[in-house]
Every structure is written in C-alpha cells, then in structure tokens.
Amino acid sequence: MEKPVTRQAHLIANTKSGKGDGANLPELAKHIARQHGVELTHYPTEDPAAFEKQIDAAASAAQKDGGILIGAGGDGTIRAVAEKAAESKVPFAAVPCGTFNFFARNHKVPEEIEKALELAFTGQPREVGLGKISGHYFLINASLGLYAKSIRDREKSTKRFGRDRLVVILSTILSLLGLHRRLRVELVTKERTQQLQTMSIFIGNNTLQLRDLALDVAKCMKSGLLAAVILKPVGRLEMLRILWRGIAKTLEKEERLETFCVDTLTVHLPQPSISVALDGEMFQMSSPLRIQSIPKALTMILPAPSAAQ
Prior knowledge:
Blueprint (H helix, E strand, L loop, with lengths): L6 E7 L11 H11 L2 E5 L8 H15 L2 E6 L1 H14 L3 E5 L5 H5 L6 H10 L1 E10 L2 E3 L2 E5 H16 L3 H12 L6 E6 L4 E6 L1 E5 L2 H6 L6 H4 L3 E6 L4 H12 L9 E6 L1 E5 L4 E6 L2 E6 L2 E14 L2 H4 L1
Parallel strand pairs: 1-2, 1-3, 3-4
Antiparallel strand pairs: 5-6, 5-16, 7-10, 7-14, 8-9, 8-13, 10-11, 11-12, 13-16, 14-15
Helix pairs in contact: 1-5, 2-3, 6-7
C-alpha cells in the first residue's frame, strides 16, 4: 500500500554496474519509494558525457527540497555521487550493485538491491569520514604507482572478459607481476619529511578492504585517520612473496611494506602530474598531491546502530 508523499529522493543509477544487476533498478526504486511515502526522481546517466551534469542536477534538487541523494552502482559511481553529496551537504544513500562493494559493505549497507533501497528510505542519517586528495573525495582508497596501474589493467580485462571477481583478481595479480617503474617522492607529514623511492603509494579509508589485504592499519579508521601503505622497490620474486603473504594474511610481517596512520600527507613528485586511482576510477592530478582525512564529511543513511552490529 502506498503512503502519501511526505519526502523527496533523487536517484543517480549506473544500470550497467557489476553484472548488470541494476538494469531494472530505477523502476524498482520508484516502487519501493512510493510504499514509504517518498517521491523519487531518477536522473538517467546512459550518456557518459552527461554523467556529471546529472549528478549536479540531482544534488541541486535535493538541496532545494530537502531530499536525499541516492547513488546506485559500483564503488566508482557511488564515489562520484557521494562526493557531490558531501560538497552539497545533502543526505546520501548508497545502493551497491558493483563487483566488490567495499564502501557499502564497510558501512553495513545490504548488497541485495531491494534491501539497500529499503534502507535508503528507512535508515538513520549518520556522519561518516572520507579521504580527500587534491580536491577530490575518496571513500575507499587513493593510490598511485603500481596499484593504480593494476586498476588500469583490470579495467581493460573486465571490458574484454566481463566484470567478474575472478577476472579482477587474476588481472590484478598479472599486473602486479609485470615490469614497473619506480617513483621518486618526498612525503611530508606533520611529524617528518621523507625522501624515498617507491613502487606504489596506497592510502586507505576502508577497514574492510584493509582487513582483506591482511594489513594491521585498519585501526587508523577507528581514530579518524587514513592508512598509508608504501611499497619499497621489489623484484618479481619479492612480489610473489608479497602476493603469497597477502593470500596467507601475513602482510603485516612484510618488511618491504611501510605502513602508518596519517591525518594529512603531501606527496611531492618530480613530474608535473601523475595518474591517481580513486575507488577504482582514474584521475590525472598535478604535483604536489595533498591528502587529508575529513571526519564527518558525509551524512549517510545507514542502519540504526543496534541493527548495524
């Protein structure tokens, strides 16, 4: 039974995310919204060129009518919508239908589309922290160097073989075992300045992913900080050892990885710009890169505390 309209919601949905589970999502979302007295407006994003404009339009409408902004899709789509929600100071709800759904899972959002939509209309607003790098928010991680290259290679593989978890994992392993150039960087934190050579810089903001990577820096998130992981130069045999330790969940013993918690970090590079991966999406950014933890950056619709445990 439908309820009288008392609230507004605005939906950005990538219907092609994951294995195409989101194809019928807009109509399903409208149906569930009506049951909860919510008038939902869908902003189509089939035209990639109009993607950012549609997010802007949805966020602007949510500001005007006091509604919520809903992002449905993989982690990349959800990041783009959440970024606009954070900037616009409007409540945000995530509906995961991607491959790994790290952000949603970390915040106890159901991976089943119907349940996630129900939560969007019935959950409680709570503030969550995000990371920010050179003006861009990230929900899960930011990376440059080797890890970012593996994401580029992964996208090529999934376009050819399909967006399956096994394809993603195998592509990542093969990419990590390839040849890679070293980065010469200067890292500046509140405590120190360090010059070094590295294969990869990884900044994490997701306890679930860090735990999956068998790293002991998930504690950083509990303190409102970001987790920095620096990979020192390694050869193929050393990389094989690191991959094995990842599988065996003993990465915390790997001496070629330097890990620490940080609230601000500046990365100086000799080149004027570099490719940076944010939650699986690639961006070109200028040096220096300025990274910071932003507590309470986003008001997110989540399960009640008792239900989330």
